[in-house]
Amino acid sequence: MTKQHLNLVKLCVGIDSVSHLESYRAGLREKALEQGVAYVSTHVTRMWPRRASEILAGGSLYWVIKGVVQARQTILRFDERIGNDGIRRCAIILAPDIIRTQPAPRRPFQGWRYLEAENAPPDLMARPEVQEDLPLNMQIALAEIGLR
C-alpha cells in the first residue's frame, strides 16, 4: 500500500479572506515584474519540515484565514534562505494557484502543523463566485453538518 502525501497547515496572518490573499499575491507578482524579476510564490518560515519527502510527494500548504482553513497552494519545493540576521530559514515554494477548500475551523497555533491527506478539507468546485455568495459562518455550519 502506497503512503499518501503529507500537507502543512499554517495561519495566514494579516489576511482577511481568500480574495485578500489572491490580491496580496497578485500585488507581489506585479512588484516583481516591475523590478524585472520572476515572481515565485513563497512563504518563509524558521523551521524546516522533517518530513519534507512526504510533503514533496504531492502535499499542499493549507491556509487558515480568520480561524478557518479556506484555501491551499501546492508545495513545489523547499529552498534555503539566509535572513539579514544570518539565520537559516526555510522558503516554502508554492504553485501560484490558490485553490479554495471547503471551510474547516481550526484553533489558533504557532508555526505550522502537519496535516495528513485524509484529514485535509476537500477542494471546492470550480465556481468560487457561488461560494462567496454565502457568508463564511454559513459555509462553516454547512461543512460541519456535511452539506458542503
Write the SSE topology:
Elements: E1 6-11, H1 18-34, E2 41-45, H2 52-55, E3 60-65, E4 68-82, E5 88-94, E6 99-105, E7 112-116, H3 128-132, H4 136-144
Parallel strand pairs: 1-3
Antiparallel strand pairs: 1-7, 2-5, 3-4, 4-5, 4-6
Structure description:
With 148 residues, the chain is of the alpha+beta class. It has one domain (6-144). Helix content is 24%, strand content 34%. It contains four helices and seven strands; from the N terminus they run E-H-E-H-E-E-E-E-E-H-H. The chain has helices at 18-34, 52-55, 128-132, 136-144; strands spanning 6-11, 41-45, 60-65, 68-82, 88-94, 99-105, 112-116. Strands 1, 2, 3, 4, 5, 6 and 7 form a seven-stranded mixed β-sheet that branches. The longest helix has 17 residues, at 18-34. The protein is globular and about 45 Å long.
